[in-house]
Specification:
Strand content: 25-35%
CATH superfamily of the largest domain: Rod shape-determining protein MreC, domain 2
CATH architecture of the largest domain: Beta Barrel
Strand order of the largest sheet: 1-2-5-4-3-12
Number of domains: 2
Structural class: alpha+beta
Number of helices: 2
Radius of gyration: 45 Å
Length: about 270
């Protein structure tokens, strides 16, 4: 037997002899000392385990709560999209209802059309509609078809026609000119467009008014039928401001048509002289 193994055997046997020769009192004293030593550790271990379990439960609860919050946010965003679409449909429905009412009430023969394009670089100048020569529209150098909004306001005139698409020159274009009159007065002048940038509300100017004209904000402006480009008494807008220049008076006009949100129009299919 190796010396180390033999020494270990001797120590083990000696330990057994010591234990069995101890009195009961001594053994109990050793037990009390042992349990006194390990009891705080057992207690702390239990507290630590309880704390760990509680912490894990809170982590799991927080994870569930975070997941629920994410679901609520997703549901909120989805309802926002639905609400936005509902508002769009309501607006479209109102526009179509107004268009139908206008078609029933107007004195003109008209064809309804949808605005299909507003190019940023042509903002306030031209729009394109989904009607063309297939619908009986023809480009006529002597007569341009008049285009109205569903509220009866003047939009412009048909400029070029394709088979299924037409271009409309808006009255807000700088090159557009419309003979106009101010309601309740003898004042007549020429409506011209003003240059605007994309997204701005187009404005109009009524030029060649008399310098002594007495005009107030809110007075209505209509076509007067001169030049036979447009029928008379079509609403153009209302006066916002009046200025007197060196030669003539000039008024700023708020258009009767909301060109920014224009979606449906009507093309008058008869000439002003018919």
């Amino acid at each position: 037997m190796k010396p180390l193994n033999f020494l270990a055997l001797i120590l083990f046997v000696a330990g057994l002899v010591w234990v069995f020769t101890l009195s009961e009192k001594s053994v109990r004293h050793i037990q009390r000392s042992y349990y006194s030593a390990i009891s705080p550790l057992i207690s702390k271990g239990s507290e630590t385990e309880a704390f760990a379990n509680k912490f894990l439960e809170e982590v799991e609860h927080s994870a569930d709560l975070e997941k629920r919050v994410e679901q609520v946010i997703e549901e909120r965003d989805r309802f926002k999209l639905i609400a936005g679409r509902v508002r769009e449909l309501e607006a479209e429905n109102n526009q179509l209802r107004n268009a139908l009412d206008f078609k029933k009430k107007t004195q003109f023969d008209v064809v309804a059309a949808r605005v299909i394009r507003k190019q940023p670089q042509m903002w306030g100048k031209t729009i394109e509609i989904d009607r063309g020569t297939d619908d009986g529209f023809e480009a006529d150098p002597e007569f341009d078809l008049c285009v109205l909004a569903s509220n009866g306001g003047l939009v412009g005139r048909l400029q070029l026609s394709g088979e299924q698409i037409s271009s409309v020159l808006l009255i807000t274009d700088e090159i557009s000119q419309v003979s106009a009159k101010v309601e309740g007065t003898s004042e007549v002048g020429i409506i011209v467009g003003r240059q605007t940038t994309f997204g701005q509300t187009p404005r109009l100017r009524l030029r060649y008014l008399s310098k002594t004209a007495i005009l107030q904000k809110g007075m209505k402006v209509y076509t007067d039928g001169r030049g036979k480009l447009f029928p008379p008494n079509i609403p153009i807008g209302t006066i916002e401001d009046f200025e007197v220049g060196p030669v003539y008076g000039e008024a700023e006009i708020k258009p009767a048509v909301d060109f920014t949100n224009l979606k449906n129009v009507f093309v008058i299919t008869e000439s002003p002289g018919d």
